[in-house]
Design a protein that fits this description.
By secondary structure, this protein is of the alpha+beta class. Helix content is 38%, strand content 30%. It has a single domain, classed as Alpha-Beta Plaits, CATH 3.30.70.1350. The N and C termini lie far apart (65 Å).
């Protein structure tokens, strides 16, 4: 349903001297997703059940957890993320907003009206498994 909403919305258009440039919403979502994933403290993007199945099948989806809305050539981005445990969430969110805004404005020339971030979870560091006893052969060599 989110995909249908993205396709029904007006696609942004930039008027240039020789014509116009139109961006598909998936292009904007991909730019935003890549910019957000590059920020330290972001453990991953959060998506729905369908995205989880696609991820299990090994297909990388940069638009996972990203919703783009365009009104009057101003872009609003909604991002759902999972953060690493122990990071400053406000700082991570500010860095995401700066990075996504800069990437979209630089690459498309479109104005960014808002970048809304929703924290969907916290990823804890994996505990290291206890060290195993040396194999019997190694014990005998000593």
């Amino acid at each position: 349903m989110d995909e249908e909403m993205n396709q029904l919305q007006q696609e942004p258009e930039v008027k240039e001297q020789g014509g116009s440039i139109t961006f598909a919403n998936d292009v904007l979502a991909t730019i935003a997703g890549i910019a957000a994933c590059d920020i330290p403290g972001v453990a991953g993007m959060s998506g729905g059940f369908k995205d989880g199945i696609v991820e299990l099948l090994g297909k990388k989806n940069f638009t996972k957890g990203i919703k783009v809305t365009v009104k009057e050539n101003a872009v609003t981005v909604d991002i759902q993320i999972v953060v690493d445990y122990g990071v400053s969430v406000p700082e991570v969110c500010k860095n995401i907003q700066d990075s996504v805004s800069k990437a979209l404005e630089t690459m498309t020339g479109l104005a960014v009206s808002a970048i809304n971030i929703s924290i969907q979870g916290v990823k804890f560091k994996e505990l290291n498994a206890p060290e195993e006893e040396p194999a019997e052969e190694e014990k005998e060599d000593k």
